[in-house]
Amino acid sequence: MSTLGLVETKSIAAGVLVADIMMKRASVELVKATTICSGRYMIQISGEREEVKTSVEAARESGVVLVGTFVISNISPEVLSAMKRSPLVARNNSLAVIECKTASAGIAAADAAVKESGVELAKLVTGQGIMGKSYFVLAGELTAVEAGTRAAELNLGNKLINAVVIPAPDFSVMNALIKVER
Fold it and tell me: Which of 10, 71, 122, 137 is 20 to 30 A distant from 152 in Cα terms?
């Protein structure tokens, strides 16, 4: 997958309509289309950059109220992996927890953080069970975690709820949040 497109709608029914419009407009793959909390719907597509851009633009032109749209080129493999499952991280890492107003903005910010700083994306939670919000956890050396947090904050702008950096977190806190090596 070279480019990921994300579209988040305020309505489930409208989200299904937008997904159909997007798929008919360009030659893209529907990676996932699903409900998320607060009655929102998130559409994830992949393909060649221009095709993904065309498909996302179709969503913008649909007349449906959108929560967010993103086109992410050269999506980080860490983000793709974290979208599927949380990786095991080293016990002695510093952590950052970044909380976002929307699911789609969280994915885009996580990608920016990983690309900018080389931190590990230890967890990515989007939408379900948290009122349509998202959060992600960065792990690594303190300076890298701080740089990744700054990149995420800049990427999120007004979609940022809160970001905290925890140098040398207590093992029990770290273990409750992410998968940690013994």
Answer: 10
